[in-house]
């Protein structure tokens, strides 16, 4: 859960989010090295005396052509790897369909016969003590821990976006179109997200809450709700 003094990402709760955080740190270290080199060269030019000595132009051109290419490769390879990992969905353990409305979400558990519910934001007046204002909902999305969950995302009216930062997922919900994403919750917990596409007057009031639970608890919840 993010706080108002936080400068970095939320704690990663899925393998994909861990990879994204590592790539973010890798890209920042690369940018820091480039800025340090440029600052050093600028300082050197301003402080050293001018010299009439010349350097072979071919050597300089070779360096300033190959060096940026190496930097781009160092950034592109891990980025492409993560993109392919995010798009790869092989034999999911659970499939959930998330449908965006103005301004709530509907969830359908496709692997169960009659497991469908609407998820509305809990009003501040009804909020239990210790819960988060504008982030808590009346019905959470319960998923089994350490299981591959596929989420099929669409919308009923306007554009929405299903996003949970700590799980590393963000997928647009488009009317008439099915998008899909996947995640694996690596630990039990409650993970908060919000609609990340401006969808109207109450765009800020359609939160997403995903609760990861052990498989036995998930089976008990699903059998209770579908009965």
UniProtKB/TrEMBL annotation:
Its cofactor is Cu cation. Its main location: mitochondrion. Binds a copper A center. It is a multi-pass membrane protein. GO terms for cellular component: mitochondrial inner membrane. The chain crosses the membrane at residues 27-47, 59-84. GO terms for molecular function: copper ion binding; cytochrome-c oxidase activity; oxidoreductase activity. It is found in: Mitochondrion inner membrane. SUPFAM superfamilies: Cupredoxins, Cytochrome c oxidase subunit II-like, transmembrane region. It catalyses: 4 Fe(II)-[cytochrome c] + O2 + 8 H(+)(in) = 4 Fe(III)-[cytochrome c] + 2 H2O + 4 H(+)(out). Keywords: Copper, Electron transport, Magnesium, Membrane, Metal-binding, Mitochondrion, Mitochondrion inner membrane, Respiratory chain, Translocase, Transmembrane, Transmembrane helix, Transport. Residues 91-224 form the Cytochrome oxidase subunit II copper A binding domain. Belongs to the cytochrome c oxidase subunit 2 family. PANTHER family: CYTOCHROME C OXIDASE SUBUNIT 2, CYTOCHROME C OXIDASE, SUBUNIT II. NCBIfam families: CoxB. This is Cytochrome c oxidase subunit 2. It comes from Podoces hendersoni (Mongolian ground-jay).
